[in-house]
Write a structure and sequence with these properties.
This protein has helices spanning about 10-20, 25-45, 50-55, 75-85, 155-160; strands spanning about 5, 45, 65, 90-95, 100-110, 120-125, 125, 135, 140-145, 150-155. The chain is an alpha+beta fold. It has two domains: about 5-45; about 50-160, no CATH class. A six-stranded antiparallel β-sheet has the order 3-6-5-4-9-8, covered by helices on one side. It has a two-stranded antiparallel sheet with strand order 1-2. A hairpin with a 2-residue loop joins β8 and β9. α1 packs antiparallel against α2 (about 25-45). It is elongated and about 60 Å long.
């Protein structure tokens, strides 16, 4: 995956670390500042859909392959065909499933520009903080810009539940 560190958080984090290092800082203050730093860093990490190279080299984590028509998981044979034929990123889409989980879907075209009748998806992700390339379409939010502009991040609620 492509992870990008949001540079605006670095100066704030650096300042907080300098406060922690001061001997007059209280123990609880230090713990609270560390927790805030960890949360800021988790929110600041952005992710994008897997590139074509990542798809072909199988460098992706937690992505599942689905059929566009019926929404069912693809068979191993169809997954292999998808990976072989995918040539161009087309669209990222954020939707909410029946369990009210936010899902990111990524769509790709083959070399002729045809849809592959399949997509990859990952649960518990939301549109990133830089959402200027995302737009609302009926019951979804979509991004048809360059793959690196369609950033998303793990849902904060899931991050807090893990801690």
């Amino acid at each position: 995956m492509c992870f990008n560190f949001v540079r605006t958080w670095y100066p704030l984090t650096h300042l907080l670390i300098r406060i922690i290092d001061k001997p007059e800082g209280g123990f609880m203050l230090r713990k609270m500042i560390i927790l805030i730093c960890v949360m800021f860093h988790q929110v600041a990490l952005a992710e994008t859909c897997p590139s074509i190279d990542m798809l072909k080299d199988q460098h992706f984590n937690a992505w599942k392959f689905y059929d566009t028509d019926d929404g069912k998981l693809l068979s191993a044979k169809r997954i292999a065909q998808f990976k072989k034929e995918a040539e161009e990123f087309v669209l990222a889409e954020s939707v909410t499933n029946s369990q009210h989980k936010k899902i990111i879907r990524c769509y790709y075209h083959d070399k002729n520009g045809s849809t592959l009748n399949a997509y990859i998806a990952k649960e518990n992700f939301i549109v990133g903080s830089n959402h200027s390339y995302w737009y609302e379409v009926s019951h979804a939010t979509q991004c048809a810009a360059d793959i690196n502009m369609c950033e998303f991040q793990q849902s904060t609620l899931q991050q807090l539940a893990r801690n």
